[in-house]
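Lecture notes, part 5. Sequence design as translation. It can be helpful to think of inverse folding as translation between two languages: the language of shapes and the language of residues. The source text, in structure tokens, appears below.
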């Protein structure tokens, strides 16, 4: 009889994979962001993706990125991180870790900090030089939130459903 498998995925691959899969639920045509909140003992607590709030018809509200502000998606879309926090129905998120496919904006950073989440593992940081992300990083540093850049392994994970 052989030993255990050695090619299983790591916790980071698993949770970032769950975040990425969650992001695939987003109907946003340009940016799909997923988030997965995990307890200190590696239990999934909540997930979220970017989209409109409940009751706001995604066939009626705008998905555009440019134009008059209220004609774009920006005032209406709830980000994946905030949805994951709001979707949680348990007790406290104190000490939890959040895996997110895109570095959090300043508004999500506020919610992450206030929820007591202590670690952010992020995929892309493509907006690193923007005011929103610079503000996020400043708040995270001040609040003692650990920031970890996810290191992709290059492993292909294929699902057949």
């Amino acid at each position: 009889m052989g030993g255990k498998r050695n090619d299983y995925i790591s916790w980071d691959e698993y949770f970032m994979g769950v975040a990425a899969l969650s992001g695939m639920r987003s109907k946003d045509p340009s940016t799909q962001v997923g988030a997965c909140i995990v307890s200190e003992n590696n239990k999934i607590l909540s997930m979220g993706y970017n989209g409109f709030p409940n009751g706001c018809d995604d066939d009626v509200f705008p998905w555009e990125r440019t134009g008059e502000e209220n004609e774009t998606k920006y005032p209406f879309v709830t980000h994946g991180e905030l949805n994951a926090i709001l979707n949680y129905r348990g007790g406290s998120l104190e000490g939890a870790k959040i895996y997110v496919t895109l570095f959090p904006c300043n508004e999500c950073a506020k919610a992450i900090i206030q929820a007591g989440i202590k670690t952010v593992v992020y995929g892309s940081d493509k907006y690193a030089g923007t005011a929103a992300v610079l503000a996020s990083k400043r708040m995270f540093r001040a609040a003692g939130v650990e920031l970890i850049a996810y290191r992709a392994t290059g492993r292909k994970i294929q699902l057949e459903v």
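The translated text above is only one of many valid answers, since several sequences can fold into similar shapes. The longest helix spans residues 11-23.
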